[in-house]
Design brief:
Blueprint lengths: L11 E4 L22 E4 L10 H10 L6 H4 L27 E3 L1 H7 L4 E5 L9 H14 L4 E5 L3 H12 L3 E7 L5 H9 L3 E5 L3 H14 L2 E3 L5 H17 L7 E5 L4 H15 L8 E7 L4 H8 L25 H11 L3 E4 L1 H13 L6 H15 L9 E5 L7 H9 L9 H4 L16 H14 L1
Parallel strand pairs: 4-12, 5-6, 5-8, 6-7, 9-10, 9-12, 10-11
Antiparallel strand pairs: 1-2, 3-4
Helix pairs in contact: 4-5, 4-8, 5-6, 8-9, 9-11, 12-13
The structure holds ligand F0G.
The site of ligand F0G has 23 residues, from helix 5, helix 9 and helix 13.
Amino acid sequence: MSITQIAETISRLRCIACGSTPDSAGQDFRCTACGDLLEFFFPGWPPGSLDPATLKSLWLSRRISVDALDQSGVWRFRELLPHIPVEHAITLREGNTPLYHLPRCARATGVENLHAKHQGMNPTASFKDTGMTFAASSAQQGGFRWVACASTGNTSASMAAYAARGNMHSLVLIPDGQISWGKLSQSLDYGALTCQLRTDFDGCVHILNELVRQKPVYLLNSVNPYRIEGQKTAAIELMEQFAWEPPDHIIVPGGNLGNSSAIGKALVEMLELKLISRLPKLSIIQAQGANPFYRSVHELGGRKLEPMTADTLATAIRIGNPASWKKALRVLQVTGGEVEQVTEVEITAAKAEIGADGIGCEPASAVTLAGLKKLRRSGFVKPGESVVLILTGHLLKDPDFTIKFHRGDLFSGTSSEAEAAQASSLQRAPVVLDANLGAVIAALDASERNS
Ligand code: F0G
């Protein structure tokens, strides 16, 4: 049984800079008048047009439907998304991700009401799936044979999976030697044409932008506004999990800045539709070695963004020229959020702490907890407030990082070696023993004494 839509949603495209409203987007999804990014807006949403109580109960009822689209945590909220005919929908039942309390991290930060929304619990183990189901479906609707993206690994894994499900070919451009094996292996298995380019992520984006002007391939990076629409649903689902009582703070990692833009857009739209009565503050955290947005906001007053050469062990966010920075800036201003930066050692310690809560995540996701600690110290987050960290990727995305940390090899020979001592109490290196009971009991007793 499928639970049908209340009415077909009417959406239009609009340029975020000059406000022009083209009827359709070109291959690069940029405004033909001024070159800036496009976004969807919904002219059919005058106040009172959609009854909040009706929407909430409709979305809830879809959770027990046996229809594939109703079961998806993205398509379940289709009333707030542009219309894509059902026959083009490609879904892996993405979304519907868990919200976990983090008791140990709560004690460590002094924020008792601390939760993680784990977007790593999606079908390809990152938040990208929520945007990809929707944007890949729009490619299908457009009749494209090829889809393509530049990626630090998660977008490519997700795109390859959804393209395969939708019988489309996929082209992946990734920086050679700069993405984790877990992510690379996914795009290979899902059948993508995977090109490792001798450049960084920003160099891959550059080549892809040229490519889509010459070849009929559909661009699936987050400049594609369908990606942003799909990723909005994480915030809608989060509010549902909080019984529509918003938390005080939401904290997200910042790379290309599509995710923060999407979550912020959803919050503003939910307020407009009276689904929630106030806005949480949305804060964005960057790695110190990949901090162009932090510097834009704190050093240039958000007037411009100066691209940089990015470097961080959190390879997912090794991005020096984020495409969606203007959208993210608007979200910060509207919600009253902050931008912070965190060091490599702070990221590493935070990742181990999230792991010790039995949850785990990939390095880029752990910037959220590291950032929260800073926001607590600055007084921006108060002890009595409620905080949600958006964990963007699964622990198993980057096992190399985790093993090197626990073995004590992650920072050896780097400038962070001295600082890394701070995190050493979190290390749990494997112990190699002779195969006898006495040795195992001795290890158990020693561990008990130290705990
Ligand atoms: N966390 C993870 C695990 C990511 O993979 C990314 C981005 C981000 C955070 C940052 O999100 O770009 O929306 O600000 N990964 C992209 C990729 C760039 O290609 O997989 P953002």
